[in-house]
Amino acid sequence: MDRYQELHAPFRPRAARLMTVFLGLLTVAGAAGIIVTLPRMEGVVFGPADQVGTAVLALGICWFLYRQGAVAARPGERGMVVRNIIHTREIEWAEILSVNFGDGAPWVQLDLSDGSTLAVMAIQRADGDRGRAEARRLATLVALHEEGAASSPDA
Q1: Which end is more exposed in the chain, N or C (fewer Cβ atoms within 10 Å of the end residue's Cβ)?
Q2: What is the DSSP-derived secondary structure letter of residue 11?
Q3: Measured in whole angstroms, how far is the alpha carbon of residue 114 from the centre of its chain?
Q4: What predicted TM-score, i.e. pTM, was given to this entire model?
């Protein structure tokens, strides 16, 4: 893999992805255990509606865990697609003013030219040194594309 491909590789959290898989399996096993065992217990009223409710709740939890595990930021030539838990946003490199990962923030924050900030949940403090290295890689990408735009004849 050359330097360009390394710099432009997708950003993905590690610790959060491992936890979502573990919690997803735990949720499915727990829901299955409840659905199968509670109706058989003496003195417990747990009918079909309760079973369906438990399954729906487990599906909702698994959907949320899937979204958490699918968090990513994919850099490209013109900008980056940031997929957080609920929203996905495409931003151009020129929109990014700075990359912040300080003050104990759980993930990287981008200061954008419209005055807003955008969380990049794909780069997380929970990943320790790897998270800090990924934040530096993103800051490098922003700086490189800033320089490229300034030296471009279209700029």
Answers
A1: N
A2: B
A3: 23
A4: 0.80
Helix (H, G, I), strand (E, B) or coil at 134: helix
- pLDDT tens readout for residues 63-95: 999 999 999 999 999 999 999 999 999 999 999
Maximum alpha-carbon separation in the chain: 79
Q: Considering only CA atoms, which of 41, 39, 43, 74 is closest in space to residue 53?
A: 39
Separation of alpha carbons 96 and 82, rounded Å = 12
Radius of gyration of the chain (CA): 21
H or E segment at 33? helix 15-37
Hey, which residues does 92 pair with through a beta bridge? 79
Q: Are 92 and 79 in contact (CB under 8 A)?
A: yes
> Can you tell me the distance from the alpha carbon of 120 to that of 26, in angstroms, rounded to the nearest whole number?
27
Residues 49, 114: Cα–Cα separation, whole Å: 49
The structure tokens listed for 75 are 């850099």
CA 49/CA 107 separation, integer angstroms: 40
User: What whole-number distance in Å separates Cα of residue 9 and Cα of residue 145?
Assistant: 15
Q: Which are the contacts of 90, defined by CB distance < 8 A and separation ≥ 6?
A: 79, 80, 81, 82
